[in-house]
Amino acid sequence: MTPRLAPGMLDRLPPAVARPGHDRAGMVSGIAHIGVGAFHRCHQAEYIDDLLALQPGPWGITGINLRPPALADTLGAQGGLYTRMALDGDRVAARVMGSILKVVDSQSGPAPALQVLADPAIRLVTLTVTEKGYCHRPATGALDHDHPAIRADLAAPEAPRSLPGVLVRALEMRRAAGAPPLTLASCDNIPANGRILRGVVTDLAARRDEALARWIEANVAFPHSMVDRIAPAVSDADRDRLATLYGYTDAAAVVCEPFRHWVIEDGFAGPMPDLASVGVQLVADVAPHELLKMRVLNGAQTTLAALGALCGLDHTFDDIEDPVLAAFVSRMLVEETLPTLPPVPGLDAQAYVGQSLDRLRNRAIRHRNHQIATDASQKIVQRLLAPMAERLRRGQPVGLLSVAVAGCMAYLIRGAWRFGAPWTPDDPIAADVAAIADRLGNDPPALVRAISGLAAIFPAELAQTPAFRTEVATALAGLLGPDPRGYLASRCGTAAALP
Ligand code: CS2
Q1: Best mutation site among 230, 296, 317, 411 for ligand 1, i.e. most ligand atoms within 8 A of its Cβ?
Q2: Of all protein residues, whose CA lies closest to atom 10 belonging to ligand 1?
């Protein structure tokens, strides 16, 4: 039988698999991470593994999941070990990571998570809980007071269900125990993630206890960060490939591209791991880095996912190989997105567009359009709507960004059409859009008016701008028509390139 990855196997790994460069025996955990999904394993946990190899310190990670999946049977059964396969064309760089010391499942109640988070030995909590986890309203960034989990947490603060509720309760416990200051670092791909986290935590705390909110202000840091690495969902084929190549099985394996990047605001509470020594950029202002990444790389991914799905394509690399989609997204980024971006010191923005599109061409990264289109409503705010709003304020054209936004609407509408729905969208506004599409049928101007009236997503300033509504409605009519690809070609001057 093929053996399964376990601590006892570290000395017997095949030479092609790199192993942790540190001794796991004396590891101590000073970091807790909430949301131990593929991204964390490919990103923060790898940087920390590098750090532990370079300089021993109390920075082992305790991984916590507040939502499914359970970790006990995968990472837990492997002593926290897992294999990261960085894929580039035919090349595989496999490495077993040893930075996760233990994992804690807290899906059926907050107690296990609170026990870890309240431990004074924990000095840094990192989080990847997806956009929805913050219980905020994407259009404003503020805590959503009507969110059912937030209401429940205000009614029963000692048994919180939401992420902000769990953090506030943990901070309350730390305060009562006289624990040292703490850094809470959001590593989610949401704009101004540190500010949003600070906002939802302090707002919820203040609603319960003003003194607790003041203690949090004085004792907790919420650095803002930009994180980057493409890490699609792992498939059975990936796990099978690992077993075939290396002769062991790994239920917690992850795959990603070779590229990685982490920029974090230099503002922590108390001692911190020396992240700069492993290539993390510590800066005073993360915003320019974040805007560039979200509007260019993520903007391209969301645009391609929606338009690619409408054109019957499956993966990002299929989309970008299509000359029409590639020409469209590149023109959109260069002509409309780039002029909205503040300069990033030492970086050539045009070259960044080229590098981002090249990353999306990596055929070994099987990132499904439907995966990226999941929760698109939460993502378009920063990826597409924010640059559009800026351009409209300056009186600049938004024809290409409108096509991308219309693509996201068309993705939800086509998924909602009762007969012959090609896919089932997974999005917090999917039910609202389905009700709108049922009521209005194929009437693009009315659809755009109704969908952009969803105030949690579309800022009123944008939704009420006539140029926004007419441009998006024109594009929506084209994309809901019989030939979305032909329509795209007509919008970006590539008709001649059509086969
Ligand atoms: C993707 C991101 O699923 C998505 O929304 O756009 O996960 C993307 O791959 C990462 O942000 C890359 O750093």
Answers
A1: 230
A2: 230
Closest-CA residue, ligand 1 atom 4, reads 372
Question: 105-159, pLDDT tens digit by residue?
Answer: 999 999 999 999 999 999 999 999 998 899 998 878 899 999 999 999 999 999 9
Mutate to test the pocket of ligand 1, among 301, 304, 319, 411 (most ligand atoms within 8 A of CB): 301
Q: Do 205 and 162 meet the contact criterion of CB atoms below 8 Å apart?
A: no
Q: What's the CA gap between 496 and 499, in Å, rounded?
A: 8
Ligand 1 pocket test: pick from 42, 46, 189 the residue with the most ligand atoms within 8 Å of its Cβ: 189
What's this model's pTM, rounded to 2 decimal places?
Answer: 0.95
Question: Domain boundaries in the chain?
Answer: 7-283, 287-492
**DSSP three-state, residue 157:** coil
* CATH no. of 287-492: 1.10.1040.10
What is the number of the ligand 1 atom nearest to the C-alpha of 301? Answer: 6
Distance, in Å, from the CA atom of 45 to the CA atom of 102, rounded to the nearest integer, reads 12
Segment 41-91, tens digit of pLDDT: 999 999 999 999 999 899 999 999 999 999 999 999 999 999 999 999 999
Which atom number of ligand 1 is nearest to the Cα of residue 189? 11
Which atom of ligand 1 sits closest to the CA of residue 39? 7
364 contact partners, CB below 8 Å, separation of at least 6: 87, 88, 89, 90, 91
C-alpha to C-alpha distance for 263 and 279, rounded to whole angstroms: 9
Judge: domain 7-283, CATH 3.40.50.720. yes
